[in-house]
UniProtKB/TrEMBL annotation:
Keyword Signal: yes
Organism: Chitinophaga horti
Name the UniProt record assigns to this protein: Thioredoxin family protein
Stretches assigned to coiled coil: none
Superkingdom: Bacteria
Signal peptide, first to last residue: 1-20
Domain Thioredoxin: 10-157
Stored Gene3D superfamilies: Glutaredoxin
Keyword entries, A-Z: Signal
Length: 173
């Protein structure tokens, strides 16, 4: 009996380190799910446009993917800044449009001039009717290895509904 108990202890001592070395599975960060490759982007963007119309806001479309470190940085930078987040939310309905190998949303992007020529993320500003007002290269909103609060706030203010009178962005005949 003592021999079996010793054998059992030896086996446990050999097996325990194996379990101790197993990596702990971490819960995915919300930064890994900003974009939804399975979304019906056209329907969701239409909903965002309707909401913007009711709330008298513009639509801010951030085109990118969960694979994109700069997309995550932009999201986190704005969310972590009360001033940026509050101003954005007061003036824009935000939609994160997925662009990834799973779903590039090319048909929807084609409606807005296929704006990824700038790299990712790229920002689209739509009016409350869904008309494209501006395409923003987010590289111009950076400083060194991060985003620049002053540049982002300037962008938000310059393209807000209050900054644009309706006759300023009507197509010229």
């Amino acid at each position: 009996m003592l021999k079996k108990l010793i054998q059992l202890c030896l086996v446990m001592l050999m097996v325990l380190p194996v379990f101790a070395q197993q990596p702990v599975k971490q819960k995915p960060s919300h930064l890994d799910s900003i974009y939804n490759p399975n979304a019906n982007a056209e329907a969701e963007l239409a909903t965002a446009i309707k909401k913007a119309s009711v709330e008298k806001k513009h639509v801010l479309v951030q085109v990118g993917g969960n694979w994109c470190i700069w997309c995550k940085r932009l999201y986190k930078y704005v969310e972590d800044s009360t001033a940026l987040r509050d101003y954005r939310d007061k003036n824009y309905v935000v939609y994160h449009l997925n662009y990834s190998k799973e779903n590039q949303n090319l048909a929807l992007l084609a409606k807005y001039g296929y704006p990824q020529r700038f790299g990712f993320p790229v920002l689209l500003v739509l009016d409350a009717n869904g008309k494209l007002l501006h395409i923003q290269d987010t590289g111009q909103l950076e400083s060194a290895d991060s985003y620049d609060k002053r540049k982002l706030m300037s962008f938000f203010k310059n393209w807000s509904p209050a900054a644009l009178k309706p006759d300023q962005y009507k197509p010229k005949s």
